[in-house]
Amino acid sequence: MTDTFNKLAINQFTLIAEQTLKNDNSGIQLPENLADMMFKTMCENMGDPLQKVSVRDIICCEIPLPFLPNVIDYKIGKGCCDEIVKRDCLFVPCSNACVDTKCSKHLKERSGCGDYWSRYAAWEKKEPYCVTIGDKEHKEKSYGTYLHSKKLDSIAVGDELKKWGIELRLDASLFRAPPKPIKKNRGRKAELRVEAVDTDDESETEKSSGQDSDTDTEKTEKKKPTPKPRQKKVVGTSLDGELTKEPMETKAPKKGKFRGNPDKLEDQEVDGVSYKTLGGKFYDKDTLEIVAWTSNDVFTLL
Questions:
Q1: 35 phi, psi to nearest 5 deg
Q2: CA–CA separation, 41 vs 63, rounded Å?
Q3: For the chain, how big is the Rg over CA atoms in Å?
Q4: Alpha carbons 127 and 197: distance in angstroms, whole number
Q5: Contacts made by residues 89-92, CB under 8 angstroms, sequence distance 24+
Q6: Spatial CA neighbour of 134 closest among 104, 115, 106, 111
Q7: Cα(207)–Cα(186) distance, rounded to whole angstroms?
Q8: Number of Cβ atoms within 10 Å of the Cβ of 288
């Protein structure tokens, strides 16, 4: 897919160059196979894109690669086991050294994930590889989903390949992030409330006479209550001038000693008897017990 895009870009560039030279009237003519020549030069500088990398060279990578028979030579029938194994949700060939097509481990016990050719058939159809081991079904995840689960990306894979000197170009579609799951709204669904409405046949209302409609409107007008007139608030009455505010009755003070500062008390004599007084209350001069009080200028003994 990347080579196709490169060829399209080169063709577009050559078309723009030809049009520019025609408008300039310089007389320079470009070769007809300029696009092919440019693509060939690009491939020579970048390396042959069809040249495969040996599976023995990528075993050292700490980040596993997916099943890529178009760019990786798995050496099937050339000394590598063709049994498919599951490695971190990726179904890839075992690739251990062997004499025939199976290594010593898989000659004794098969993996249950099929062989190289069954895996190749699913890859050629661009279908996710799926196997059943026992009663459980195992389905291959995309390489982008695997990298997302490991918190890796295309840059991390490229750096890992460069670290081991592996010249391998991977298609950008392999690193496509998995689709985000659709969030489901929690809670109960809102219920639609439908109010019952009394409906009458329009045909019957249209057939009714004009007099009936007039009487109906008169009835509805009669049913409406007439609003009462607002009454203005009357402020004050004629008797306001005659009413007088009665004085409030004052209660006699409770008996007890004076608890304040004695220096604030004043001497006062009533009916030949000397008292200590303050605020209308009279106290005994010796004991400072309250003995009398005044109310409306009336001296009253307790």
A1: -65, -40
A2: 32
A3: 54
A4: 58
A5: 89/140, 89/141, 89/145, 89/146, 89/149, 90/64, 90/65, 90/66, 90/140, 90/141, 90/143, 90/146, 91/67, 91/119, 91/129, 91/131, 91/140, 92/64, 92/65, 92/66, 92/67
A6: 111
A7: 53
A8: 16
Pull the structure tokens for residue 113.
């994930």
Q: What is the pLDDT of residues 219-271, one digit of tens each?
A: 555 566 677 777 666 555 555 545 555 556 677 787 788 888 888 888 888 88
Q: Which residue has the tokens 């001038």?
A: 241
The 3 state secondary structure assigned to the chain is CHHHHHHHHHHHHHHHHHHHHHHHCCCCCCCCCHHHHHHHHHHHHHCCCCCCEECCCCCCCCCCCCCCCCCEECCECCCECCEEEEECCEEEECCCECCCCCCHHHHHCCCCCCEHHHHHHHHHCCCCCEEEECCEEEECCCHHHHHHHCCCCHHHHHHHHHHCCCCCCCCHHHHCCCCCCCCCCCCCCCCCCCCCCCCCCHHHHHHCCHHHHHHHHHHHHHHCCCCCCCCCCCCCCCCCCCCCCCCCCCCCCCCCECCCCHHHCEEEEECCEEEEEECCEEECCCCCEEEEEEECCEEEEC
132 phi and psi angles, rounded to 5 deg: -115, 120
Owner of token pair 């985000």? 180
Q: What is the mean pLDDT of the chain?
A: 78
From the number of C-beta atoms within 10 Å of its C-beta (0-12, 13-18, 19+), residue 242 rates as exposed
Q: What does the H/E/C string look like for 107-135?
A: HHCCCCCCEHHHHHHHHHCCCCCEEEECC
Full-model pTM: 0.46
Q: Tens digits of per-residue pLDDT, 117-135? A: 999 999 998 888 998 888 8
d(CA 110, CA 132) in angstroms, rounded, equals: 13
Name every residue whose Cβ is closer than 8 Å to that of residue 110 and which is 6 or more positions away in sequence: 83
